[in-house]
Amino acid sequence: MSESITTASSELRADLALVAELIPRGSRVLDLGCGRASLLRHLIDEKGCTGTGVDGDPERLVTAIARGVPTIQLDLDSELGEFSDDSYDVVVLSRTLQAIRRPANVLAEMGRIGTRCIVSMPNFGFWRNRVSVLFGRMPVSRQLPYTWHDSPNLRYTTLKDLEDFFAAAGYTVERRIGVTDAGVPLPRGEVATNLRAGAAVYLLRRDRRRR
C-alpha cells in the first residue's frame, strides 16, 4: 500500500480518491452504496480491479450500468446475505453508513463478505459543527451539506464514537485518514483529527474469530 496518499484523480470526489489509494491493484471490490459507480469505474480502468456496485436508487444504477460497471439493486439493510463469505477482497461503504437503518448489521455483513473493509463518514465533531450547535443551529457544511429537514442522514456521529462502534463490532482500524472540510487529507498521526476533520476514511480489518 502506498504511504503517500494523494487526490490525483480529478474524476473522483476527494474522499473517493483516498479510498481508491487504499485498494490494492487487481482486487475484487464490492462497493455498497456505489451511486453512479465513479469509484469502481476508476478502479477497473486504473488499477485492474474487478467488482460489483450495489445501490438502491434505480436512476443512479442506470448511470452506473451505462458506464459498463456491473451493478445490482439491493437493500443494504436486509439483502447483503446474497453475497457469499469471503467473496471479495475489499468491501467499500462510502458516505453511506449514516444513511442506513441497521448499521451494525451492515458492518457485520461487510466483514463476512470481504477480507478488508473501507468506511468513510462525515464527522459531526468537526469544530465548525460544534460552533454551529453552540449557537443553536444544526451544522451545514461541505461534508454535511443538507439542512435538517431534507437530509438523507438518519444519524450523526463523531469520529471517537465511530471508532468505539468499530471496536465493538470486532474491527481493528488499520488506517485512518482525516479529511478537512475542503477535502484535503490531514497529516498522518494528527492528534486532533476528531476536531479538525470534516470527515474520515477508515481501512478496517475484522477479527474473524468473532463471526
What would you say this structure looks like, in words?
It is built from seven helices and seven strands, in the order αβαβαββαβααβαβ. It has a single domain, classed as Rossmann fold. It has helices at residues 14-22, 38-47, 58-66, 103-113, 127-134, 159-168, 193-196, and strands at 28-32, 50-55, 71-73, 88-94, 114-122, 171-179, 199-206. A seven-stranded mixed β-sheet has the order 3-2-1-4-5-7-6, sandwiched between helices.
Notable features of this structure?
alpha/beta; disordered N terminus; globular; 7 helices; seven-stranded mixed sheet; Rossmann fold; about 210 residues
Work out the number of β strands.
Answer: 7
Mean pLDDT value: 86
Structural class: alpha/beta
Given as residue ranges, the uncertain stretches (5+ residues, pLDDT < 50) are 1-10
Strand order of the largest sheet: 3-2-1-4-5-7-6
CATH superfamily: Vaccinia Virus protein VP39
CATH architecture label? 3-Layer(aba) Sandwich
Organism: Propioniferax innocua
InterPro entries: Methionine_synth_MetW, SAM-dependent_MTases_sf
Protein name: Methionine biosynthesis protein MetW
Pfam families: MetW
Short description:
The chain is α/β, with parallel strands linked by helices.
Helices and strands, with pairings:
Layout: H1 14-22, E1 28-32, H2 38-47, E2 50-55, H3 58-66, E3 71-73, E4 88-94, H4 103-113, E5 114-122, H5 127-134, H6 159-168, E6 171-179, H7 193-196, E7 199-206
Parallel strand pairs: 1-2, 1-4, 2-3, 4-5
Antiparallel strand pairs: 5-7, 6-7
